[in-house]
Design goal:
Elements (H helix, E strand, L loop, with lengths): L14 E2 L24 E5 L32 H13 L4 E5 L9 H9 L10 E6 L4 H11 L3 E5 L5 H8 L5 H13 L6 E6 L8 H8 L5 E6 L17 H9 L4 E4 L9 E5 L5 E5 L12 E4 L4 E3 L7 E3 H6 L4 H13 L5 H4 L2 H9 L5 H4 L2
Parallel strand pairs: 1-13, 2-3, 2-11, 3-4, 4-5, 5-6, 6-7, 7-10
Antiparallel strand pairs: 8-9, 9-10, 11-12, 12-13
Helix pairs in contact: 1-2, 1-9, 2-3, 3-5
Length: about 375
């Protein structure tokens, strides 16, 4: 019997303490990297744990009962997260997404949302505060999340077919509960809700058209995500990626689509609307059509490491600065120094050469830094 081999290495320890520059320049509200990309979005992973074992993200073979998740003391506290968020907002961040692992598993997540929801940009505007969830706990928590100040949610849903969905989450979770969670979230006003479907060929690509048909004409915006080579544990292969162009072709053959413009710079989804006016879909072509040129996102891991790219091999240990007694001005200057040096454009450079280099330096897992 041949066993599936999934290489994995623990890169959570790969990090360095950021340099605090000698001269502390105050944040200006607009911080650009070396490729003139402003820092605008912050994704914060609030837990590395999850109650699903999606085959493309946390395969059971790796994330089993022996897998060592982070101990509680390693996690950033809500106060630490809020402090970092304030610093990023001072640098120009106006959109914060909570993610994970499964963010709704973090105890008292509502409390964190309350703390973040009161933050304002330097010119007094609200922060666009959102959360990405597998929706397993959403029906139960939606009202409390809304009351705490969450604006909206994005739900991950890979299939409407119960058997396929259970196979993909690999913990036998029923699709009906996710659909119920989406409805409850909509009812309490956590919208517009986006629904993200990761498409893996041979696994759920037969669900592309049924998913489109199901959400067409509803208030929910369905987005198709190309299966990505994040992390080292999902055994990624290019032939399992369904290019967005194919997704659009398959849907368009049954329900005609036309392209229309993105909402803002840095939006990852390319938008298509139904020619009959009954709504839109999005496609996120992380593999076939890199959008690094507009990438304005920073990611904060559960234990406080800053990643300037989803495919980074190393994080920058902001928690060390926090816990070593550095003040906000020092941390802000360190972040500024890091972002100004940023040249990441992994997707654009995805090539044989980079692939070879990355064999030697395994990538960070999606469940650890958040999607
Ligand atoms: N647990 C939450 C959820 O699933 O919505 C939040 C964290 S999850 C890591 C965030 C997003 O990353 C999900 O929409 C998930 O489908 C996506 N994702 C995970 N692994 C992926 C991969 N290999 N390729 C593309 N998207 C992936
Ligand atoms: Fe969990 Fe989300 Fe990863 Fe699925 S995609 S295993 S729900 S973190
Ligand atoms: Fe941004 Fe890195 Fe993704 Fe490019 S590969 S879009 S730089 S996260």
């Amino acid at each position: 019997m041949s066993e599936k081999f999934i290489p994995v290495a623990d890169h959570r320890s790969l990090s360095r303490e950021p340099v605090v520059p000698a001269v502390l320049e105050a944040p200006t509200g607009r911080l650009e990297d070396a490729l003139a990309r402003p820092l605008q979005d912050l994704r914060i992973s609030v837990t590395d744990r999850c109650n699903f074992r999606c085959v493309y993200c946390m395969p059971k073979e790796v994330f089993d009962k022996d897998y060592r998740f982070l101990p509680h003391g390693d996690l950033l506290s809500f106060e630490e997260i809020t402090r970092i968020a304030k610093i990023f907002i001072a640098h120009g961040v106006h959109k914060i997404r909570l993610t994970g692992g499964e963010p709704l598993l973090r105890k008292n997540i509502e409390k964190l949302i309350e703390m973040l929801a009161v933050l304002r940009t330097p010119d007094g505007k609200d922060i666009d505060l959102t959360l990405t969830t597998n929706a397993s706990l959403l029906a139960r928590k939606a009202q409390a999340l809304k009351d705490a100040g969450l604006r909206r949610v994005t739900v991950s849903l890979d299939s409407l077919d119960d058997a396929t969905f259970r196979r993909m989450n690999d913990v036998d979770f029923p699709v009906a509960d996710v659909l119920h969670g989406i409805d409850v979230a909509h009812r309490v006003g956590l919208g517009p809700i986006k629904v993200n479907m990761v498409v893996k060929r041979g696994m759920n690509d037969q669900e592309i058209v049924p998913m489109a048909r199901h959400f067409k004409g509803t208030p929910f915006i369905l987005r198709f995500i190309e299966y990505m080579d994040v992390g080292s544990s999902n055994g990624w292969r290019m032939d399992e990626v369904v290019p967005s162009a194919e997704v659009v072709r398959r849907i368009g053959a049954e329900m005609p689509l036309e392209p229309f413009e993105r909402n803002y710079r840095g939006e990852t989804a390319e938008r298509w609307r139904y020619a009959d006016g009954s709504g839109e879909i999005g496609v996120i072509s992380s593999v076939t059509h890199a959008f690094c040129g507009d990438c304005t996102r920073a990611r904060l891991s559960t234990e406080g490491k800053l990643y300037t790219c989803l495919f980074a091999t190393r994080g920058h240990d902001l928690r060390a600065l926090l816990r070593n007694g550095r003040n906000d001005a020092e941390i802000a200057a360190a972040v500024s120094h890091l972002w100004q040096a940023r040249m990441d454009r992994y997707s654009e450079l995805r090539s044989a050469q980079t692939a070879a280099m990355r064999e030697a330096a395994p990538k960070v897992e999606m469940s650890y830094i958040g999607g």
